[in-house]
Write a structure and sequence with these properties.
alpha/beta, 5-stranded mixed sheet, globular, single chain, 225 residues, 7 strands
C-alpha cells in the first residue's frame, strides 16, 4: 500500500493543487503596467519575480510556452506536473541536484529565443536576494532580464520564509514591468555583480510600487490579509 501511494501521491496531489490554483486564477482580475518593452522583445527573455509571488506569475504566464526550472526532488515531480498543466515547459534541476545540466539546457533554449520565468531567490532563499545563477544564464545566452513586481488585493501572506502570497478569490492583481536588463558576454565578475544588485533593487522597487498602487502596505507582516 505504501509503495502504491508513493507512486500515486504526486499524481493525486498535483491534480488537486492545479485544480485549486487554476480555479482561483479564473477569478482573478489581472492588470499590467509598463509591459510594452517586454512585448517588443525579439530575443530570449527571463521574467524575474520573487518566489513568494509565484502563484500570481503562474496564472498570468500560463499557456505562453515559457520554460521553468523544477527541482529533481520528490516534491519537484509534483510541481513538474502542475506547471505542465499550466502550459509551461519544464527543465529539471536545482542547486542541489542537476543544477549544471539545468543551466546548460536553459542557456540553450534562451539562445533560440525562448522565454523563462524564474524566482531568483528560490527555492530556498534567502528571500529577496537574486542568486548568481540567473545572471550567468543571461550572460551566456544574451537573454533579457525582465524584472516584474507582483501584487494582489485582498490577499493572505503565509508565515513562510518567502511570505508566500495567496490572493483571495476575485482579487485585483497588478503586474508592474521594469525595463529589460542585459548582461554583456564580456562583463567581468565585478560588472555582473553591479547588474545583479541593480536587478535586485529594481525587483524590490517594482513589488513595492505594485503593492502601493493596490493600496497595500509593502511592509505588511506575514499572515495578514
Amino acid at each position: 500500500m505504501k509503495r502504491a501511494w508513493r507512486y500515486i501521491r504526486p499524481i493525486v496531489l498535483s491534480g488537486l493543487v492545479y485544480g485549486l490554483a487554476r480555479l482561483l486564477g479564473l477569478t482573478l482580475r489581472f492588470r499590467t503596467e509598463g509591459m510594452e518593452p517586454f512585448k517588443a522583445l525579439t530575443c530570449g527573455w527571463i521574467v524575474t519575480g520573487w518566489h513568494g509571488r509565484s502563484l500570481l506569475a503562474v496564472n498570468f504566464f500560463r499557456k505562453r510556452g515559457a520554460y521553468v526550472i523544477i527541482s529533481l526532488s520528490r516534491d519537484g515531480e509534483m510541481q513538474n506536473r502542475v506547471f505542465r498543466w499550466f502550459g509551461f515547459k519544464t527543465i529539471r534541476g536545482s542547486t542541489g541536484r542537476g543544477g549544471a545540466r539545468a543551466a546548460i539546457e536553459s542557456i540553450r533554449v534562451l539562445r533560440k529565443g525562448a522565454g523563462m520565468t524564474i524566482s531568483p531567490d528560490g527555492p530556498r532563499g534567502p528571500s529577496g536576494v537574486v542568486q548568481n545563477g540567473v545572471m550567468l544564464m543571461a550572460q551566456k545566452s544574451g537573454a533579457a532580464l525582465v524584472p516584474v513586481g507582483f501584487s494582489a488585493h485582498p490577499r493572505w501572506l503565509a508565515p513562510t520564509w518567502d511570505r508566500y502570497l495567496v490572493p483571495w478569490p476575485f482579487a485585483k492583481v497588478l503586474l508592474v514591468f521594469g525595463e529589460p536588463l542585459y548582461v554583456p558576454p564580456e562583463a567581468t565578475a565585478d560588472e555582473v555583480e553591479v547588474l545583479r544588485l541593480k536587478l535586485e533593487d529594481q525587483m524590490h522597487q517594482l513589488q513595492a510600487d505594485a503593492d502601493r498602487r493596490l493600496g497595500v502596505q509593502p511592509c505588511e507582516v506575514a499572515g495578514e490579509s
